[in-house]
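Key result, reporting period 2: structure in, sequence out.
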């Protein structure tokens, strides 16, 4: 059977979509390979959130096209860049397949079609390609199959697709389409199935996950559809931890904040993308909150759940960002004391309002703010991790560490990475670990 190699760029949504594509291909008898050189089909699942992410995938495909010239290998792009660039990818690099973000479930059909066509043609024939980036009603329901490996402790569950917010810097609404949610019963069935196969922690995924279901399902007994879903998933017997990503601060309504105090499986970690600490910039970004509102949300969340870890995304160098605007962001980061912060230099995205705004910030200025803010946030992160040295933490062991396969890796409920030595039988188990030291980015310890 033909061998398939898939490489994934971007966020957890993409990882999950790639898993679905792999699962569908394997169900048809294809074999997955980790060696691109022996693959008959190579698929890159792409990200468009920053220009760099697109350039990486384009560069990789150019190399692959060169290496596989004359071998008859099928080359394809999937995901966000496939969606935003469409047919131009066939003309440019000459790939065989471009499948958009609502077409993951069609990839297996398209691969079979392309292979059949290849077999029936001589190598010199004009290239035959498939481009499908059309919207498809109900495509959010298609990301639902898993390949659960033995001892797998964690899994992603896609609960919705798309985003209707119009943050002026963001390309995701264009690449992922408008918000479409799956039914609660469908999600619960999927989680039950995962738990029956040994999964202990699920992360619910969506581009604007905490506004799940707002167009499809009513509020019931004062609870938003997202909180109704959390409660239903929380009730799945055998599930130990529940997470969700990626949320928007405006989606933390009173019922969701309150849920953190009452649903014990809900892990003590929230991702609260700040983007900027300057009200002027937040307004220009169309974020829908002020710095004060954001701080108030942090206060409320910590009041309900004092052990809560808060992580964030921040953009430096948004068009028009002055020194004062940046300093407001820096001050807010110092005040909140994030448990982790993903800091990005603003990256112009095609057809987004911010790309056309005056006052584009110089690359060196962005670089300087990026470096400065990282210094501030990293020092706080290190202090927080140091505070855990000598303590016992609950860790869900995920498997061997990528950097050092002799070690095992896992996460605490607050999403801190812990590395430790131990028997491979610990994989997929929830264990206690005595923290012995920190590198400033992760924890090291001994299983008890
Ligand atoms: Fe990138 Fe698309 Fe995810 S742009 S961050 S892969 S939703």
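The corresponding designed sequence is given below.
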């Amino acid at each position: 059977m033909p061998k398939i190699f898939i490489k994934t760029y971007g966020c957890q949504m993409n990882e999950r979509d790639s898993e679905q594509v792999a699962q569908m291909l394997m169900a048809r008898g294809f074999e997955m390979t980790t060696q691109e050189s022996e693959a008959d089909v190579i698929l890159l699942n792409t990200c468009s959130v920053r220009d760099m992410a697109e350039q990486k995938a384009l560069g990789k495909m150019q190399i692959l096209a060169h290496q596989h010239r004359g071998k008859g290998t099928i080359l394809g792009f999937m995901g966000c860049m496939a969606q935003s660039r469409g047919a131009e990818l066939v003309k440019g690099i000459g790939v065989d397949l471009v499948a958009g973000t609502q077409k993951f479930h069609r990839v297996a059909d398209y691969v079979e079609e392309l292979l059949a066509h290849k077999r029936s043609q001589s190598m010199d024939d004009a290239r035959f390609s498939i481009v499908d980036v059309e919207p498809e009603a109900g495509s959010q329901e298609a990301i639902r199959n898993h390949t659960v490996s033995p001892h797998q402790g964690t899994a992603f569950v896609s609960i919705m697709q798309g985003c209707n917010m119009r943050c002026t810097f963001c390309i995701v609404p264009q690449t992922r389409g408008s918000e479409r949610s799956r039914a609660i019963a469908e999600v619960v069935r999927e989680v039950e199935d995962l738990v029956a196969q040994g999964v202990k922690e699920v992360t619910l995924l969506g581009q604007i996950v905490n506004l799940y279901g707002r167009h499809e399902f009513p509020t019931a007994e004062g609870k938003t559809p997202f909180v109704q879903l959390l409660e239903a998933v929380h009730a799945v017997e055998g599930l130990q931890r529940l997470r969700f990503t990626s949320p928007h601060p405006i989606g933390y309504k009173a019922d969701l904040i309150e849920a953190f105090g009452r649903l014990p499986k809900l892990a003590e970690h929230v991702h609260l993308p700040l983007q900027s600490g300057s009200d002027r910039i937040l307004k220009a970004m169309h974020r829908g909150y002020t710095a004060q509102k954001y701080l108030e949300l942090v206060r409320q969340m910590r009041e309900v759940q004092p052990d809560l870890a808060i992580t964030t995304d921040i953009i430096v160098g948004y068009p028009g960002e002055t020194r004062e605007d940046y300093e407001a962001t820096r001050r807010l980061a110092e005040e909140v004391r994030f448990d982790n912060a993903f800091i990005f230099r603003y990256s112009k995205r095609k057809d987004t309002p911010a790309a056309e705004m005056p006052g584009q910030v110089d690359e060196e200025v962005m670089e300087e703010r990026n470096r400065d803010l990282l210094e501030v946030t990293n020092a706080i992160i290190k202090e927080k991790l140091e505070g855990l040295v000598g303590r016992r933490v609950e860790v869900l062991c995920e498997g061997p560490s990528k950097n050092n396969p002799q070690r095992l890796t896992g996460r605490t409920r607050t999403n801190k990475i812990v590395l430790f030595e131990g028997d491979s039988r610990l994989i997929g188990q929830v264990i206690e670990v005595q923290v012995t030291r920190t590198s400033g980015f992760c924890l090291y310890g001994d299983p008890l």
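The radius of gyration is 23 Å. The first strand starts at residue 3 and ends at 8. This case is discussed further under Risks and Mitigation.
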